[in-house]
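Late entry, evening session. Most of the bench is empty. Finally got around to the prediction I had been postponing all week. Sequence below, unchanged from the version circulated by S.P.
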Amino acid sequence: MQLVNHYRDVIAAGDLRDGERLPTVREISEQWKVAYTTAAKALRQLAADGLVSTSKQGTIVTFMENNTFSPADRLRSVGRGRRIYPHGASKIISAALVDAPQHVADALDVEPGEQVIRRERVTMHGDVPVTWSVTWMPGDLAEQVPELLSPAPIPGGGGTIGLVKEKTGRFPKAGLDSYRECATRATALVAERLGIAEGDPVLVGENTWPEESGVVLEFGEYAIPENQWVYVK
């Protein structure tokens, strides 16, 4: 399991990307000083988890062919100084201060109509959209972190929450974050963003990331098309 967890981490972190080759069974056996059968069993487990594929040419990373990241894994990646979207490009659709709709006001504990930050994006694997998401953040962050209102990608690879941490020192408190998901049908907006038909099956979810004081730094909404696994560690 140490072997399996090691390669899960380096693949999820983007240190080994899709199409790259893992060491051979013999190389792993010698490097880790374990039996050949132990190394082979670890690679079989990685393949069963959908992280790699094996053939006569070796063991190749295939993580993003059928997987995408959960919000919890993205938050852990930023906390460890990793890229928040290590395997794909995030295309920003819009970024602006807007009036908070009721459900966002409830999540951020602000008054409906209060100004909040809204960033909408589509995460891609090559030319294929794999996740649509909207990040909502308190409006007072706009003055301290004006980049949140720019449609340009966040520099550094840490995403919105990583930039907030860099500029303000504020970050969600581990253990206070919460998540929920539901299988449903794609709305017209989600269908357009993901390149699917309205009414197609999607997995939708929400994440709430408060800091230690209880102030919610980020409320997120996302949708993932069918046949796309959500990687949860």
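Two things to note before I forget:
The chain has a mean pLDDT of 89.
Residues 36-48 form the longest helix (13 residues).
Will write this up properly tomorrow.
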